[in-house]
């Protein structure tokens, strides 16, 4: 049984090139082509293909919006973003919307065909540069959260006072401790948060608060 595929791509030459290469395979077939978002939005749920190759920046809407709107009506369909955009916001918004793959348009057709098979079989194919960004994002978040969790309650209190703009002497007076003790706590805060100055420490504190 062949993998049924729909292509949502407003660049006609690329859309047709994808269709031609996919239909040349014995295990997959393009059952629909859409050249604008509204057409895709209205018709995708009716055909529920196994895989949708989705462009992000269509002329009339974002491909991310389409996935958000049709996802619940197409529980068995897997979406692969196929786009020229590599910025973090679009990557993570696509994944949050329900895309299981993210490919850059410069990828070879072999990579695209392999990705279709992968996502159909439960994988999450991504271009190398995208996978690296995703891993770096989560690695960074893990380090940040871990660092904040390592702070003692007193260190968290001092970090909060620093974020309010208080000077070391004012913190010492408010907490009834010496300036040297404040400096020692601040040094521990920098070490645990992996920062080298007050601005970086406060930025991380604001990130944790939000």
Summarize the structure in words.
The protein contains ten helices and five strands; from the N terminus they run βαβαβαβαβαααααα. With 210 residues, it is α/β, with parallel strands linked by helices. A five-stranded parallel sheet has the order 2-1-3-4-5, with helices on both faces. Strand 1 (3-8), helix 1 and strand 2 form a beta-alpha-beta unit. Helix 7 (153-163) crosses helix 9 (179-193) and helix 7 crosses helix 10 (198-209). The longest helix has 22 residues, at 128-149. The chain is elongated. The mean pLDDT is 87.
Q: Could you outline the blueprint of secondary structure elements for this entry?
A:
Blueprint: E1 3-8, H1 12-23, E2 28-34, H2 37-47, E3 51-54, H3 63-70, E4 78-83, H4 88-97, E5 101-104, H5 109-120, H6 128-149, H7 153-163, H8 168-175, H9 179-193, H10 198-209
Parallel strand pairs: 1-2, 1-3, 3-4, 4-5
Helix pairs in contact: 2-3, 3-4, 7-9, 7-10, 8-9
**SS-based structural class?**
alpha/beta
Query: How are helices and strands ordered from N to C?
Result: EHEHEHEHEHHHHHH
- Estimate the helix proportion, in percent: 55-70%
Tally of individual helices: 10
| Main sheet overview | 5 strands, parallel
What spatial order of strands do you see in the largest sheet? 2-1-3-4-5
State the total count of DSSP E strands: 5
DSSP strand (E) fraction? 5-15%
Poorly predicted regions:
none
3D shape = elongated
Question: pLDDT average, as an integer?
Answer: 87
First and last CA, distance: 49 Å
Radius of gyration: 25 Å
């Amino acid at each position: 049984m062949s993998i049924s595929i729909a292509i949502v791509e407003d660049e006609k030459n690329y859309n047709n090139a994808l269709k031609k290469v996919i239909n040349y395979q014995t295990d997959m077939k393009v059952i629909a082509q859409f050249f604008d978002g509204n057409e895709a939005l209205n018709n995708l749920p009716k055909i529920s293909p196994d895989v949708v190759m989705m462009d992000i920046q269509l002329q009339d809407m974002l491909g991310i919006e389409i996935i958000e709107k049709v996802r619940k009506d197409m529980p068995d369909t897997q979406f692969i973003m196929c786009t020229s955009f590599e910025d973090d916001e679009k990557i993570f918004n696509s994944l949050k919307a329900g895309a299981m793959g993210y490919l850059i348009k410069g990828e070879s057709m072999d990579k695209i065909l392999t990705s279709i098979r992968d996502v159909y079989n439960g994988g999450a194919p991504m271009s190398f540069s995208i996978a690296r960004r995703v891993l770096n994002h989560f690695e960074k978040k893990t380090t940040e959260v871990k660092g904040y969790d390592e702070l003692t309650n007193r260190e968290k209190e001092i970090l909060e006072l620093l974020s309010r703009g208080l000077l070391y002497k004012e913190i010492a007076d408010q907490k009834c401790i010496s300036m040297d003790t404040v400096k020692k706590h601040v040094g521990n805060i920098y070490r645990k948060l992996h920062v080298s100055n007050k601005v970086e420490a406060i930025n991380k504190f604001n990130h944790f608060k939000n």
